[in-house]
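User: Hey, quick favor. My workstation is busy. Could you predict this chain's structure for me?
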Amino acid sequence: MKKAGVNPTTISQPLARYSHGVAFGDWLVSSGQLGAELDGTIPDDAEAQCVLCFENLKAILAAAGMTFEDVVRFNAFVTDRAYFPVYGKVRDRYVAGSDFASTLVIVSGFTRPEFKVEVEITAFRAKNA
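Assistant: No problem, here it is.
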């Protein structure tokens, strides 16, 4: 099974030598997505950063021929407990139902102190769903 990098041009490009997503067969895994605009702007607001994370994930999924319905696992990281309900509210806008696994971890920080949220996914395209 061959793997292929997934790097939509509609989102900011990776910060180093890696792909935003890797597709292999019916699977897709993403790198953690941060709340940065295409031009590199980082909103101060945690909710705005969450929305950008999910918009980036949506673009990665679309580039692999998938949608949020194909996501089987979310891993989220926030820098403050106060961002947990914010993250959940935004995730619920993008994902209906609860047919996915989910983990949220509180971390001390990311590569840049402005970032408050990071989200990664694992998705599977079921042939007979």
